[in-house]
Amino acid sequence: MLNPKVSIIIPVYNRTALLGETLLSCFRQTYDTIEVVIVDDGSEEDINGCIRIVHGEIRQGHTLKYLRQERANANVARNRGIASSDGDFIQFLDSDDILHPEKIERQVRILQQNPQKDMVYCLGVYFRNTVGDGNILWNVPGHGNDLERFLSDDSVFCTMAPLWKRSFLAKMGPWDERLVCWQDGEYSVRAILSGADYCFINKTLCFIRDHDLARSTTLNNAIERENAKTLVGISVSNLLEKKGMLTGEHAWCMALRHIRTIRDLARQDLHAPRALLQTNREAILRLIHHARPGVGKRIFAQVVAMSATNRILFPLLRYMPIRSPHRTRKTVSVSEEQTL
């Protein structure tokens, strides 16, 4: 196929101050056959008005589809966008981020030259107000096993870095609509465990906006955030076990995720629901049974698990000396050709 269609799926909740620039980065792509699918997740702001402002930038070969739904979450919107699109390739894009003008063209070319590949991803760089005013990479690829990095919360690529083949996403399944955050990590892990054959282009082709406006999730409080982290941990652990890949090292990584969730609940001085603490406790005990760590690690995990539902001991868990993971960020120079 000479020019396969690419569908860019954009879930949006409000953010009209930023959406216009995001849309312009889609319509200024050098690739000719693109449909942009905007799924309005019950916005209170005038999304249609924002679309009208940039409508004149839509050129021949590019189309725009606008859908509106009752307030749900970004994953529900993404799944609806996929179902309503017909592109051969899928590009996910958050409503505050920006694509390099050549992103789609370069990645389509790679997938056409390598038809066995299911996905190709690129580098992403943070910016504040204008592309080029920041120079911090989202992450550095190629350092260790990708699956193990994702399991350790060291996300190798961000949501918009990949360009996916629709046929692979259909095999993998939809975004998990229970999740309101950390959904991109779960999605990436599921892709890897589904056998994704992918490659990397060493170019900065997407830009992540670092801003103070509300995020697109439905997080109303910290409890909801920690509950989402718990769901992701359980979902990924179950999938690893189903695939026969819950090794001792993987199980310990997942146990640490639940330990950090309990620690974070204690640190935020939250009146955490007992059911949430109990769920994390049970997950830790199950995972260390698989992990079979050394005596010191096993006793540490058991103490945390047992303390989680103890009214007196739980507040003391905020002082746990356990380091949170971090992405392998790197300072880079953003060339003039990468600015818009």
What do these coordinates show?
α1 (16-27) packs parallel to α2 and α10 packs antiparallel against α11. The chain has two domains: 6-217, Spore Coat Polysaccharide Biosynthesis Protein SpsA, Chain A, CATH 3.90.550.10; 222-319. The two termini are 29 Å apart. It contains eleven helices and eight strands. The model is unreliable at 215-219 and 336-340 (pLDDT under 50). The protein has 340 residues and is α/β, with parallel strands linked by helices.
Annotate the secondary structure layout:
Blueprint: E1 6-12, H1 16-27, E2 34-41, H2 47-54, E3 62-69, H3 74-84, E4 89-92, E5 98-99, H4 103-113, E6 119-127, H5 146-151, E7 162-165, H6 166-172, H7 183-193, E8 198-209, H8 222-242, H9 248-267, H10 274-291, H11 295-308
Parallel strand pairs: 1-2, 1-4, 2-3, 6-8
Antiparallel strand pairs: 4-7, 5-8, 6-7
Helix pairs in contact: 1-2, 7-8, 8-9, 8-10, 9-10, 9-11, 10-11
- Stretches where pLDDT falls below 50 for ≥5 residues? 215-219, 336-340
How much of the sequence lies in strands comes to 15-25%
What's the domain count? 2
Main sheet: strands, sense, barrel: 8 strands, mixed
- The named CATH superfamily of the largest domain: Spore Coat Polysaccharide Biosynthesis Protein SpsA, Chain A
Per the principal axes of the C-alpha atoms, what is the gross shape? globular
**How many helices in DSSP terms?**
11
Query: In terms of structural class, how would the helical and strand content be classed?
Result: alpha/beta
Q: Using the coordinates above, name the CATH class of the largest domain.
A: Alpha Beta
State the CATH topology of the largest domain.
Spore Coat Polysaccharide Biosynthesis Protein SpsA, Chain A
Q: Tell me the strand order in the biggest sheet.
A: 3-2-1-4-7-6-8-5
Radius of gyration: 21 Å
Order of helices and strands: EHEHEHEEHEHEHHEHHHH
Helicity, as a percent range: 40-55%
Tally the beta strands: 8
The assigned CATH architecture of the largest domain is Alpha-Beta Complex
Average pLDDT number: 90
Straight-line distance between termini: 29 Å
